[in-house]
């Protein structure tokens, strides 16, 4: 205790100028849950094919605050029609200070969605469960691989790298069978 300085302006947050990252808040930005063919859907014998698509968007709120939105669309369909549809946009406000410019894009498009994903997974599971179907547990998403794949696609089509990593992100699509 004797070596702590109560007058330290950083309040234990590390040396001045050190990189700082904070999740300021997380929230559901938009949620749509549909079971358009109920109650008939509960009589169908066909096992639905579950299609899962995801996307990441980044909005700059201020110089040091960024909104990261993880959008997930889940559609369970069979030859009979739609069993359930879930559209979720889950966002987090992240404060970034003293982060190297070349690290901001990868952080916002890889690490931030990775931090938000467990909450998205829980919301989707509960939403599907609330439609009368067994909860759907989303498989983990490798945001790093999706980011690298998108960078390779962008470099191949444009011959260069994205400017700052902000905007629409590099992750799209997945198929998962409901078990």
From TrEMBL:
Region (Disordered): 155-179
Keyword Iron-sulfur included in the entry's annotation: no
Domain of life, source organism: Bacteria
Localization: Cytoplasm
Chain intervals with Low complexity compositional bias: 163-179
Gene3D superfamilies in the record: SecB-like
Alphabetic keyword roster: Chaperone, Cytoplasm, Protein transport, Translocation, Transport
Listed InterPro entries: SecB, SecB-like_sf
Function, as annotated: One of the proteins required for the normal export of preproteins out of the cell cytoplasm. It is a molecular chaperone that binds to a subset of precursor proteins, maintaining them in a translocation-competent state. It also specifically binds to its receptor SecA.
NCBIfam families listed in its UniProt record: PRK05751.1-3, secB
Protein family membership: Belongs to the SecB family.
PANTHER family: PROTEIN-EXPORT PROTEIN SECB, PTHR36918
Protein name in the entry: Protein-export protein SecB
Encoding gene (name): secB
């Amino acid at each position: 205790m004797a070596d702590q300085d109560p007058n330290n302006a950083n309040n234990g947050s590390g040396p001045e100028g050190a990189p700082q990252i904070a999740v300021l808040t997380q929230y559901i930005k938009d949620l749509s849950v549909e079971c358009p063919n109920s109650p008939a859907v509960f009589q169908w014998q066909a096992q639905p094919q579950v299609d899962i698509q995801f996307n990441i968007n980044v909005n700059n709120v201020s110089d040091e605050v960024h909104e990261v939105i993880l959008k997930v669309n889940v559609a369970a369909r069979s030859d009979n029609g739609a069993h359930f549809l879930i559209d979720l946009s889950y966002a987090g406000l992240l404060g970034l200070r003293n982060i190297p410019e070349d690290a901001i894009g990868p952080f916002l498009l890889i690490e931030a969605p990775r931090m938000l994903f467990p909450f998205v997974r829980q919301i989707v599971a509960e939403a599907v469960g609330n439609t009368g179907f067994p909860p759907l547990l989303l498989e983990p998403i490798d945001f790093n691989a999706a980011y690298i794949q998108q960078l390779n696609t962008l470099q191949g089509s444009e011959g260069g790298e994205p400017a700052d990593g902000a905007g629409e992100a590099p992750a799209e699509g997945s198929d998962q069978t409901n078990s």
